[in-house]
Design a protein that fits this description.
heterodimer, A: mainly beta, 4-stranded antiparallel sheet, 6 helices, 8% helix, 35% strand, globular, B: 359 residues, mainly alpha, Serine Threonine Protein Phosphatase 5, Tetratricopeptide repeat, 20 helices
Chain lengths: 547, 359
């Protein structure tokens, strides 16, 4: 009798523990010690559209100490009224971009001044960030996009950066949003793609909505504009090949950009998330030119033929069929769109089958990631959310300016809502992904207007994982554009995607119960490497083999 | 509001008979007044007619002339007093009531204008007066009567639509004032909140209504639509399912249920409901398109039939364009790239047409 009671007690305890575990959120929302940044967008009653669009965050290891550091883009002070060539007061430390170095104890130190990153340009209102080692010197460089002129900071390798924009010739101009490094011509040097949003200037600004309650105007009120493609000459300078490559042949309203070789032809393609216009899928023709084929490929419009208010985008394989799919976040009343890669160069919208209809019909998504947060072998979904209009509730009582993030676990290709660890509603914008504490579990950092960044630290679990750093030799040093397969799962090497952000460049794979992994790398140079029975739960560096 | 000269002559003849001939001096003043009117000098005409009124205050003719001159001058407020007096002196003269009714109405005295316009059988103006006097049910009858005579009078059509809205609003007010806690009372309030896009308030009202009268047709459907508007598809499904159970013959209930199921990714169930809706009421383009969407997932070849029917029914509309786009997606997956390209071209052509039409 006693043993029965004991076993019953044990069983009950186990059940309780299991129930507790199943309820436990994957993340814990925390504040990072030493990170005191606030994203200051400075909204005015005049509803200048730039005010509601910042800002980016990058996870990078700028000093190669093995710990992820954080670079945060600030916006600026918006004068009221905002006149042409206005000063956004970026010399004021309140409005600086900030670089936080991670210390060995998990705290962070503001090294902005030490790194020489305090000068964001007086006439620049900050937007986003891209990270890539454009000169293959082993240290990640930083590209900051602005309303104004963009800035390329070369990482000197000694903890400092130098503004090399003029020399490199990548200042762009206008209103740049998301940008990303990728190697479109496979010459081993990272090129740079810059999306631009609108042909907007303070003179062209206007308000919409009711006179007594003005709101930001929708993008359709302003003219579209072109993206920019810079080809890396390999000597520290870039050439604007927007016209020669065909990229400038179509005007869009670009907010997000993501890269992957969707058709397996060995050349990295580009997807631009456009707002209130057809999405662009730039097929890399392999000869230095691109063709925009979204409409013919089935990736331009929603499944009901509507134009998306595309904002963030991720270009990864969510259903483990080996082909990169596209997930585009957008405004409410339509779910986030999931363009499933059907192979043979075509896509079909499958958001309803994937469960996104239930998860995203009435929210506004920006930064987005497909990462295996629970290490079960399926990439899960995380979206930073919040409406674009700060007074949207005056116009639609069902909507909110501030929203909690969306976290959904991927169950065999179907997304199911899960607990992000915090339901704090914020005006979410950027989201970057990476393993902040090197525990093998992917963490998230998000930005939100007027607030400090939110960090969602992954609580971890028992599943196995493998994190891979690529070191290109013939290919670009970061290995951007490589296709890496581990136990049937595929990731395309990139730090880009999301919205205005740059994520940890390391490739993370959840292995579930498997304590070994077979790894295949297809490098942008064309080389292929296979590693068998790689031990799980480690950070692995794969150097590109010489031919 | 200016009466024409012929009508005025008729009015004056009627009044003349009723009140007897005016004196010579009065007649002279009236003649010089009319001459001034003919010259367009309304101020001088008013001076002359006023003098005539002063000389013969019990004579309706100078009063009517004076009132008419004020009306020609668009000074309707000043016209009221002489016309009222004329009506007192000649209560059986229809023309006086017609002028007085118009002048009162133009000054916002709708209730006072009504009896005069009734006497004058001015059903259009009467309807407007009744509408302004918060008597929309009567206004509808009068305006319909007027529209029977001049069916294309856009002003009358406008006022009739306003009267309809006012009647609806009045009925709602009555429902809310006298029966606020009934299912219908909650439904009406819920509708108002829904129209104002105050969804959570609308939900609450409808939930109260449904709790009280779960058997009332339409309630579940409307509540489901509120949930659908906020993309709460699980709750929408629940309500549409309740409506479909309540009204098994309702194609709309089945269509809404099928659409909600589709949004939830329950493709098989959605297909069944949409097929059911199609059987209850065939050839509804929206139902066929939704059926095409579900079949595109589960049985792509079968999707071609309903989508083809959408195109046949809709031809050049945006929904036909959507059907082409979906067909293109299906054919692309099947490797029928030429067909897909043709369908994308059709979609673009229809989009261009819609753009030209400003849709």
């Amino acid at each position: 009798m006693r043993s029965f009671l004991v076993s019953l007690f044990v069983s009950l305890c186990t059940i309780t523990q299991i129930a507790k575990l199943s309820r436990e959120p994957q993340f814990e929302a925390i504040s990072l010690k030493g990170v005191d940044f606030t994203l200051r967008n400075s909204p005015t009653p005049r509803k200048y559209l730039i005010e509601t669009m910042p800002g980016g965050v990058a996870l990078l290891d700028y000093n190669n100490d093995g710990l992820l550091d954080i670079f945060l883009v600030n916006a600026g002070h918006v004068p009221d009224p905002l006149l042409p060539a206005a000063n956004f007061d970026r010399s004021n430390p309140t409005y600086w971009n900030r670089l936080y170095r991670q210390n060995k104890d998990g705290t962070f130190t503001d090294v902005t001044v030490q790194a020489g990153l305090q000068n964001a340009g007086a006439t620049n209102y900050g937007m986003g960030v891209a990270v890539g080692d454009y000169d293959n010197d082993g240290f990640p460089d930083i590209y900051v996009t602005n309303f104004g002129r963009n800035i390329l900071y070369h990482n000197n390798g000694d903890g400092t950066f130098t503004d090399v924009t003029a020399k490199a010739g990548v200042g762009a101009g206008g209103w740049s949003t998301s940008a990303g490094f990728f190697d479109y011509d496979n010459d081993g040097h990272l090129d740079l793609f810059v999306t631009r949003y609108l042909d907007w200037t303070p003179e062209k600004s206007k308000t919409c909505g009711r006179i007594a309650e003005p709101m930001y105007c929708p993008p359709g009120e302003f003219a579209a504009t072109t993206s920019i493609l810079y080809r890396n000459r390999g000597n520290g300078t870039f050439e604007d090949v927007s016209a020669a490559s065909g990229i400038s042949t179509k005007e869009g309203r670009g907010l997000g950009v993501a890269f992957a070789d969707y058709d397996g032809d060995g050349f990295t393609d580009v997807f631009v998330a456009n707002d209130a216009i057809e999405q662009f899928l730039w097929h890399n023709n392999g000869n230095g030119t691109f063709s925009e084929i979204a409409m013919d490929a089935g990736a331009a419009l929603s499944s009901t033929g509507k134009k998306l208010s595309g904002m963030g985008v991720v270009f990864q394989d969510y259903d483990n069929d080996g082909l990169p799919d596209l997930l585009v976040t957008q405004l409410p009343h339509e779910p986030y769109v999931l363009f499933h890669n059907d192979g043979k160069g075509s896509f079909s919208a499958q958001e309803l089958e994937a469960g996104l209809g239930r998860l995203s019909g009435n929210v506004s998504g920006w930064g987005v990631g497909l990462e295996d947060f629970d290490n079960d072998g399926w990439k899960d979904l995380f979206v930073a959310q919040g409406h674009v209009f700060d007074n949207v509730q005056l116009y639609d009582g069902s909507l909110s300016y501030r929203e909690p993030p969306l976290f959904a676990l991927n169950r065999g290709g179907h997304f199911e809502k899960s607990d992000a660890g915090s339901d704090m509603a914020v005006a979410g914008r950027g989201a970057a992904f990476g393993d902040l504490n090197n525990d093998g579990w992917i963490d998230v950092i998000t930005t939100s207007l007027g607030r400090r960044p939110q960090v969602y630290l992954n609580r971890g679990g028992k599943s196995h994982w493998l994190t891979i750093t690529l070191r290109g030799k013939r290919s670009n040093r970061d290995g951007y554009g490589a296709r890496v397969q581990v136990n049937g799962q595929v990731r395309f090497a990139t730090a880009s995607g999301s919205y205005l952000c740059s994520s940890d460049k390391r490739l993370h794979f959840g292995l579930g119960d498997a304590n070994m992994g077979d790894v295949e790398v297809r490098w942008p140079s064309g080389g292929r490497q296979i590693l068998r029975a790689v031990k799980a739960d480690q950070f692995l560096t794969i150097e590109e083999a010489r031919p | 509001m200016i009466i024409n000269v012929i009508l005025l002559v008729q009015f004056l003849a009627q009044v003349q008979v009723a009140s007897g001939p005016p004196t010579q001096e009065v007649t002279a003043l009236l003649e010089t007044g009319v001459a001034a009117e003919d010259r367009g000098d309304l101020d001088q005409a008013i001076v002359n007619f006023q003098k005539a009124v002063d000389l013969a205050p019990a004579s309706p003719v100078p009063l009517l002339r004076l009132g008419d001159a004020y009306m020609r001058k668009h000074d309707y407020g000043a016209a009221i007093r002489p016309l009222k007096r004329a009506a007192e002196l000649s209560p059986d003269v229809v023309a006086v009531h017609r002028l007085l009714g118009y002048s009162l109405l133009s000054q916002g005295y709708a209730s006072e204008a009504i009896p005069h316009l009734e006497i004058a059988h001015e059903s259009g103006a009467l309807g407007i007066a009744q509408l302004q006097a918060d008597r929309p049910a009567e206004a509808i009858i009068s305006l319909k009567d007027a529209l029977a005579k001049t069916p294309d009078d856009i002003d009358l059509i406008y006022y009739l639509s306003r009267a309809g809205s006012a009647l609806s609003s009045q009925s709602q007010d009555k429902l809310l004032a006298e029966f606020p806690h009934t299912a219908r009372g909650h439904q009406v309030l819920g509708q108002s909140y829904y129209a104002a896009r105050m969804f959570s308030e609308a939900e609450k009202e409808y939930e109260l209504a449904v709790t009280q009268r779960p058997d009332l047709p339409g309630l579940h459907l409307e509540l489901g639509e509120i949930y659908a508007a906020t993309s709460d598809w699980a709750k929408a499904e629940e309500q549409f399912r309740a409506e479909a159970k309540l009204q098994p013959g309702s194609s709309e209930a089945a269509y809404r249920l099928g659409s909600a199921l589709l949004e939830e990714g329950k493709v098989k169930e959605a297909t069944e409901e949409l097929r059911h809706s199609d059987s209850l009421r065939p050839d509804m383009p929206e139902t066929l398109y939704a059926l095409g969407r579900t079949l595109a997932v589960s049985a792509p070849e079968a999707a071609e039939v309903p989508l083809g029917r959408v195109i046949a029914l809709e031809k050049q509309t945006p929904l036909a364009g959507q059907a082409y786009l979906l067909l293109a997606s299906i054919h692309r997956k099947q490797g029928k790239t030429e067909e897909a390209a043709r369908e994308v071209a059709e979609y673009k052509r229809i989009q261009n047409l819609a753009s030209k039409r400003g849709e």
